[in-house]
Design goal:
alpha/beta; TIM Barrel
């Protein structure tokens, strides 16, 4: 792929080596599912090292609830592990933007 780091484990290792509370990673759930899977273990084990989550479903990078990732479970997990960082929606709605926000009903 041409990226400096090939796995999330490498990135989390670098955060550990730097040892600064100011350094956090962006954990892109969409890309993690495609490249590594094991979302719940990676999130649980490394929550303190993550400062921003990107949300999109697989396949197609569409809104949560349109693919294979169990987002109701993922969001409950994120809450249960005390994640307090940012969550960004980085997806392409299948319909209009307003229709694409319908996934939020799945999370309540």
């Amino acid at each position: 792929m041409g990226y400096y780091l090939a796995t999330s484990a490498e990135a989390f290792e670098m955060v550990d080596e730097v040892g600064s509370p100011a350094l956090k990673l962006l954990f892109d759930i969409y890309h993690q599912q495609i490249t590594e899977g094991n979302l719940t273990a990676n999130l649980t084990r490394n929550a303190a090292k993550i400062g921003h989550l990107h949300v999109a479903d697989v396949p197609g990078r569409h809104e949560p609830g349109t693919g294979e990732i169990n987002y109701p479970y993922i969001f409950k997990l994120i809450d249960s592990i005390g994640y307090a960082g940012w969550v960004g929606c980085e997806y392409k709605p299948k319909g209009t933007t307003v229709e694409g926000l319908g996934w939020m009903k799945l999370m309540t």
